[in-house]
Design a protein that fits this description.
The chain contains one helix and five strands; from the N terminus they run αβββββ. By secondary structure, the chain is of the alpha+beta class.
């Protein structure tokens, strides 16, 4: 019985950490992955570097993006921070 009373606080601590830290982080990662998978040609995105670019082509692990009128580059899907929503 002594062992149970000593282990019980650690179990509660682990449960609290799961519900406060781990679970919300997993939900946010899942939501971000779904957002990246839903991006299509013509969408504007913000990269992790802070660039606002337009998607020209969707590939398996890359996006071909348009940075300005002449420059098109490939961007890894992991480098997408969020979708850009026009304020105006």
């Amino acid at each position: 019985m002594e062992i149970v009373t000593q282990i019980l606080p650690f179990v509660f601590l682990i449960a609290i950490m799961y519900f406060v830290i781990i679970r919300p982080q997993n939900q946010q990662a899942k939501k971000h992955k779904e957002m990246v998978e839903a991006l299509t040609k013509g969408d504007k995105i913000i990269t992790t570097g802070g660039l606002i670019v337009e998607i020209k082509k969707v590939e398996d692990t890359f996006f071909v993006i348009k940075m300005n009128n002449e420059t098109e580059v490939r961007l890894v899907k992991d480098a997408v921070a969020r979708k850009y929503e026009d304020e105006a």
